[in-house]
Design goal:
Blueprint (H helix, E strand, L loop, with lengths): L17 E4 L5 H11 L3 E6 L21 H4 L5 E5 L5 H12 L3 E4 L5 H4 L4 H7 L4 E6 L13 H7 L20 H24 L4 E5 H8 L1 H10 L16 E4 L6 E4 L3 H10 L4 H4 L6 H6 L1 H12 L4 H10 L4 E3 L3 H10 L5 E4 L2 H10 L10 E4 L23 H5 L13
Parallel strand pairs: 1-2, 1-4, 2-3, 4-5, 5-6
Antiparallel strand pairs: 7-8, 8-9, 10-11
Helix pairs in contact: 1-7, 7-8
Length: 413
């Protein structure tokens, strides 16, 4: 594996793994950030002058004017600028790849091949390289299609099941397909590395936005694959469970996630209407699904008598999954109250060194960055926050000037 490049803090489950990251926007950068949090050294290759498109996606921005979109998926990375239209910089890219364990790219299919950086060409030179290619619609008939999350949500069926019955199709509030694809890419990379550990052989990992979405449609996709059911929009209701949706209360909506008959009986008792659990229409889940509208009316009548926080406390105490519909600030506050790491501050090591030399106060940490915490807790090798998101080309001279730059000894057969 590649060296750690002397990263401050070091360590982590993936310490010693080097990733040449040619990806941009969201799916690829999210995958490589997760791996970087776990100790991998990620070198982000960007176009000179503009860099990753998300650097310009603002507002919102931080105090320095940097896009929070970019900041959200690029910590623990170093930025190198290379003009891949230049043969000299393509040679530098090849040297970077030669010293890396993993390459990640999400250019339109065929782009890396035209640059002489495709998997087939690199495989012969570096047989241990794990090459992860992320596309919108694969490398076959969909190769020329632009891979944007909104487009995939539309053509991939997600929007057809999102929104109110009879209303317009609605996209999710975040680029969920990109995020899911990033997770699949990270999983594929780790599986390929495990195979390489066992055999010494690298391989091509291909992940598409459309394929990831179809897999992530889980029960809806299975309903079609197995039973030929084409689902539609149901608002916040669930096609197979009831009550499993939001209900109005005296102030704001309350989510009820009643997954079995025992929970429903507890719900009916807590609401003061135990007779509902004995009603033949509602006694079993299939019955509740069949009489969803009648049940929702009866529950809503009772829930409107108090606020969401009141009912949440009452129902959770009775063992009924329930909670208010929070805004994002309320969601982070909730996580904090539960002891979950919602937001962390990532200091800039170079600024910390300057503070130590000059005796300046914490204000010297101008590039410290507030970040959303890594979601995986590992007891022995937890995620580490070593570097804030990089400025464009911030580490070009450092990386290209390394004595081990281009060292491909670990990639030998």
């Amino acid at each position: 594996m590649g060296s750690d490049g002397g990263e401050a803090g070091g360590g982590g489950a993936l310490h010693g793994l080097r990733i040449a990251d040619f990806s941009r926007v969201l799916a690829g950068p999210y995958a490589t950030m997760l791996l970087a949090d776990l100790g991998a050294e990620v070198i982000k290759v960007e176009r000179p002058g503009t860099g990753d498109e998300t650097r310009q996606w603002r507002p919102p921005a931080d105090e320095q004017g940097t896009s929070t979109y970019f900041l959200g998926v690029n910590r623990n990375k170093r930025s190198v600028t290379l003009d891949l239209a230049s043969e000299a910089d393509r040679e530098r890219a090849r040297a970077l790849i030669a010293g890396s364990d993993v390459l990640v790219e999400n250019f339109r299919p065929g782009t890396m091949e035209r640059l002489g950086l495709g998997h087939a060409e690199l495989r012969d030179r570096h047989p241990r390289l794990v090459y992860c290619s992320i596309s919108g619609f694969g490398t076959g008939g969909g190769a020329a299609l632009p891979g944007y999350d909104l487009l995939v949500q539309a053509v991939g069926g997600l929007m057809s099941v999102t929104g109110e019955p009879g209303g317009e199709p609605v996209k999710t509030g975040v680029a969920l397909v990109d995020v899911i694809t990033g997770l699949h890419a990270a999983l594929g990379i780790m599986a390929a590395l495990r195979h390489r550990d066992a055999t010494g052989e690298g391989q091509l990992v291909e992940v598409s936005l459309l394929g990831s979405l179809l897999s992530a449609m889980v029960n809806q996709a299975s309903g079609y694959a197995v039973a030929g059911v084409v689902p539609g929009r149901m608002g916040n209701a669930h096609p197979s469970i009831a009550p499993y949706e939001t209900f109005p209360t005296a102030d704001r909506p309350l989510a009820l996630a009643v997954g079995n008959d025992t929970q429903f009986a507890a719900l009916a008792a807590a609401l003061g209407v135990p007779r509902l659990a004995a009603d033949d229409r509602f006694r079993t889940n299939p019955g509740r699904v069949a009489h969803r509208a009648e049940l929702a009316g009866l529950l809503g009548e009772r829930l409107r008598s108090a606020g969401a926080d009141h009912w949440s406390g009452v129902l959770l105490a009775a063992g009924v999954p329930a909670g208010p519909v929070n805004t994002l600030d309320e969601a982070f506050s909730f996580a904090h109250r539960l002891g979950l790491p919602g937001i962390v501050t990532v200091p800039d090591p170079s600024e910390a060194e300057a503070e130590a030399r000059t005796g300046a106060g914490p204000s010297a940490l101008r590039k410290s960055s507030r970040q959303v915490a890594h979601p995986i807790a590992l007891s022995a090798s937890p995620a580490r926050y070593r570097l804030p998101p990089p400025a464009l080309g911030e580490h070009t001279e450092e990386i290209l000037g390394r004595p081990d730059f281009g060292d491909h000894s670990d990639q030998a057969p």
